[in-house]
Amino acid sequence: MNNIVLWYDTIGVGNCSYKDVTFSQPSITELSDFEIKSTSSNLNSTKINLYVIELLNVKTSHDIFSLIPPHTKELFNKGLSILIYYPKEGHELEDWFKAIYNSLQSNDLLDKKVYFLFGDLDFKVHYRQFCKAENISSFLKPLSIDFFRNYYFQKASKVKLDPTAKKTKDFLFYNGKMRPHRLYSVAKMKEQNLLDNSYTSFTGTTHTGENYTIEEALDGEDDPNIIKFAENFQPMVLDVEPSKFDKGMMAETHSSHYSDSYFSIVSESSITVRFITEKTYKPIYNLHPFIIIGPARFLELLRDKGYQTFPEIFDESYDKEEDHVTRVNMVINEVKKFVQLSSQIKDRVYENSIDKLYYNRDNFIKNQNQFNDLLQVVKTL
Question: I want to staple 116 with a disulfide (CB 3.0 to 4.6 A). Which of 17, 84, 176, 202 is the partner?
Fold first, then answer.
């Protein structure tokens, strides 16, 4: 990528670093062979020049762009662009947009070229909706990236799986961080005894730097069974104790979890935004049928990307349901219907999906060979 130059005020340190707001280390430099320069150098106008601000968080109390040195601001007048880089999440951004807009405005940067690279695959739509609702002109260019497709492919454990192995469990249900939809779905399934013959994890608290405490995830809930589950919550551990888990383990594959179970319940990060993480790519890569606890039209997005879903196993009308609680309940009902099948029918339904499993895996691998999302973004720039 010799036509791209990433610019830093201090080489090796992230730009505009507030504690808990921006990443202190520039992780984008690990993704490809970028040219790196200090903002004390001269600008080459024949290159794509990006001043990268990697976000971890945005707090309205922090004026992020006020940390840009005066000599760097001079480079913006000579062709240096700002790239706000936050590809690893895809949640709603209303407050973040306001904070970014206000900081750009207070630092006289609204007329500069600003790109925002984010994991929400409907990012452009949501950005336009924000500008319309706030009655403000566009102040940045939103760019979507399917970050975890390439990331998981590069990091995934390469293990041999036998999809024809005899199944002993109904499903695989990984849950990490405490989130309201995960608390709700796990508690509801436990209440209905659906977890008894499954591989289910829900660690929830110790290791993940979570966005939600149990109390926050429970906010507004009036179901006594869910409240009781939350009050008596204990981490549900499959293989690694929460205190020993680190992010490097999230791409590891425990082959028995896939070969011993019929399908995966994917508990995605967001219930409102179509953001595909490694949680969805795991069953695709590891030859597993799946049903999704996530936002509406998520299966539609996967089909648009060439993947086949599993209407022969589940009623997938849940994917079109806009109400989040109703949609999760529809998924739980489909899980319940499967669990209640005889083992002979489960075997037959699963065996009929095997060709589709290999098709999905081949489609996933083919996409890695065809293009890298970051290259597509560069073409946009």
Answer: 84
